[in-house]
Amino acid sequence: MMGTHKHTWMPCCKDATMLAEKQLQHQRLSLGQRIGLRLHLLFCIFCRRYVMQSRAIDKYLGNQTPQTEITPDESVKLQWETMIAERMKK
Ligand SMILES: [Zn+2]
Prior knowledge:
This protein is mostly helical. The protein has helices at 13-24, 31-43, 45-62, 74-89. It has one domain (13-89). The chain has 4 helices and no strands. The structure holds zinc ion (ZN). The site of zinc ion has 6 residues, from α1 and α3. This is Zinc-finger.
């Protein structure tokens, strides 16, 4: 079901990650959007993992004062992901 609109009541992966990003930025979501996001995360392991990582990064960055502005770039996220994974091992 990745990236398809088979179920109209459920956001696709693109929509779900977009909603998750909004939530991370403390933007207000409508009730329908929140339910859609929750439902999607129940069924979709990819987005669930993505949201968990984004929250971890968000929390991590919140405790730091980054020298440079972090761009929402996939490769940057991947770097953070690896860094956080390393830290969690200890
Ligand atoms: Zn998804």
